[in-house]
């Protein structure tokens, strides 16, 4: 690297520091490598890449000078290149009164395009000959012109008729100063100041007695201590002392006091005070004049721009060096005053003052919107709003202060807006209102600040929406912290919400009723899957060339997750792992959709001129995403080389076709003869809600709330002693239900969640309903009830209406819900009006004491300004939701919960849990909040084999099933604690034992698949199921005759369900319910017939298994749906491969309940903790998240990007956003 000149040579002139030849070649190629690149250029390239791509790269003394010199050359080259874009060609120049002054028009000058200052140089050449070169010196900068001074030679050659080319000469002087300071870094041995080490010889300077100039400092302990530390030269030497001053904390006042005290205590010492700009230097000088005589002060302005004015001072002249607003200066700039403190035999005190969270040095490289050739933006609507507020506020009183023009500051990030607002104030004779950019206002304050954000366009980069440099958090911080009494922000709310910081401000204003103007539509943020994680997942979790550091760290986590069954989340990594799980699951769902892509399909119009189109899809079974999370369909004309995309919305899915709605462009250009490629898109709203819940848990510091600790002492109150009036009289006869209701009422677990553990048929929902009714009748408390699905939420809402007036209940539905599916009993107390779902109304919700919704839909409550607080939050069927989904309801407490809001979680961890498709996410999201909590100390059984009833109640009395039906599940999963309390009605059936209504019917059928379907069916089993259906209809259960509506058919496979539904329809038995195990969870029937379908046996690591049928929870649910009779049809050879199924087969054989094909039971396989999934059996383990060594700063909890609101899909797949202007 070039080193410039020595210290002795520098006393003669400031050195030049030309860019090295090989570095210039690299920079001229846009810092990109090229074939056969010289080794010298490659060396520059590698180091420059490392410096720019590593935000956390720590500079070391060894490379300190070389690295900064390299960065200075890079920055100077870019600035010089940019300046060339402003060159003017073929323009006339006007001479002023035959003098040596000339006027040059510069388009864009008022917007600082380019930035021209006094004493800059301008090169002028004849446009035609381009031979003579003249250099003019800028003497004055006007609005659209510059006045330049020339030499005699140009005056003699000048002609009014000649057209000239004008080139703005890039001023390299600031960079030469920085290079010069780097030279002195080595020569004057500045390492102890730049890389200080902690001093072991510190002393307490509190014994210094000072008489305070500013009496307010004396009353502020931190300011007082800072002044004492700055005045005492011996302490901390040679390390610089840092005064960290956030906005409005009195940083400048503290610095001024320290300078005054240093001047007083050490009268012979000279003090140097430096700042990055004249503005900030003037501010501190004006304050010093209040306390120090002017003759002792010297405010030095640069005329010749020669830093040697300072560098030639003897070092002993400045024992104190103060650098204010140090955060705005580059490090090489800061080195210039450092260079005055190299003497090792004397103590020098260096003080750096600033705030690293505000705007830093202005560096061109890396900024948004750096195309300075494009004009700056302005917004006339916002200009009118700014002027209105300024006129309104002048003369207004804040306390004893009457607002004057000079008390108001107007900030705009855009120069064009600043200029036009300034002109507007001047036109209406309000010149005292200060108008400027955010940079100009840094370090200033006003009574009132009006911020005009201007931005109405949403930009996009690397697939993400953003708002350009307006999204810079430091710029945001400065803008919001300049006002003393009143801050007004004017902007486009839909656009601003794209940025998380601006969205937080909007949300804050919304909660505090501080919104005016256009309506604000607060939205759930968009959380994009990190590109570094996505790259690894696309490689199926395998390493690849040129991996980033973050990708390598993600890979390390994924490798460990492969071998983990359940990840025991610790409080330290809790949110990060849940967030990772959401990203992994969303990626997998998107990946799974690819197999459903269709190619060369015809699309029919439903009717002439209709906007509805029909797409026929074979095998549209319930596994298809259109039945689940997909509601958007992307289509491309297969012969259109432009691949123009159209987006249709799925309206109805039935049989083997989907009806989709299109917009006008597709409708106008539709040709029935065209063939289209079709791609399905998942609805990621539930993921967005879950991510948002994690961010709120983080910001409200609620993590500890979810890791409760057991309270040791409490006062026991016997529920029998309480004279309770029961809505459901049966509850009073069940001690466990009674205990649960009583403990919920008195909030015995608070602040921990209370768990209602409800095995099948034990009356969990009845207990929950009774508890809610008791709260409603006996207190004035408000209640929120959530469930994972609409079906579960509807069940509890309908039961509540038996005891509570509909006027007190609000059943909230998502606007995506088909209103025709809403039960008639619930319409009157829901947000369904005139056959459609309407927006959640703040006034209506506030008037209801009980609100029922799904977990995702309750996200809407977070954006309402309710007039009440919830005292209870119930989460029913919590075992079926992922933990992030449950946290959505928990977050309502932070927004609308009172100080003692009790969370009540109900469910059964032994039944089906959350549905998770990703093998990596399964250890994280496969465990519900209910299941995780039940492993924590307050919820586990004690030595006496009992639960602590303050925190958890396990219901034991089964009112649903015949004892024989629940026996297997009772012994396998419920520690044989369940007590059968149902009526033992005799079952009269030709194949049934009246005392043992359970049958296993062996069928050696054949498991088959259809094209493009992952599901299976078994014709032999389906036939046997139909035989049982026809036999059972008309039989007796006690006095009841079995009808088709009393029979339910359960099967693990959606395709088998589809075949059975078709067969039943052909035989006019459509009242027989058919569904998968997931569909039947929470339901019950008099008779259940199960078709296992599975005949294949899989092998993994030399062990046999039957795939997802081995899931013990699926097994448990399937066998506990029946009230009076249970029939299982399956292949005994395949099923007994699994221990649970073998236990059931043995149970049936021992009780003479086996029919059909005969079979022999194999020896019991060795028991091991195993994890079963759809693809195979894998030995896995439980592991604590604390064992993961990877640091999780690779994931940010608050990384949401607000997607634009009111987005309508145009037919090219783009968004349309309505323009609005709002005042905060």
Automatic annotation (TrEMBL):
| UniProt cross-references to InterPro entries, sorted A to Z | AAA+_ATPase, DNA2/NAM7-like, DNA2/NAM7-like_C, DNA2/NAM7_AAA_11, MOV-10-like_beta-barrel, MOV-10/SDE3_DEXXQ/H-box, P-loop_NTPase, SF1_C_Upf1
Q: Residues in domain AAA+ ATPase?
A: 237-473, 750-978
Top-level EC class: hydrolase
State the EC number(s).
3.6.4.13
What are the recorded Gene Ontology BP terms? regulatory ncRNA-mediated post-transcriptional gene silencing
Q: Which reaction does it catalyse?
A: ATP + H2O = ADP + phosphate + H(+)
The Gene Ontology CC terms held by the record are:
chromosome; cytosol; P granule
Q: Does the keyword Nucleotide-binding apply?
A: yes
Q: Which UniProt keywords apply?
A: ATP-binding, Helicase, Hydrolase, Nucleotide-binding, RNA-mediated gene silencing
Q: Which GO terms describe its molecular function?
A: 5'-3' RNA helicase activity; ATP binding; hydrolase activity; RNA binding
Family, as annotated? Belongs to the DNA2/NAM7 helicase family. SDE3 subfamily.
**The protein's name in its UniProt record:** RNA helicase
Q: Which organism is it from?
A: Trichomalopsis sarcophagae
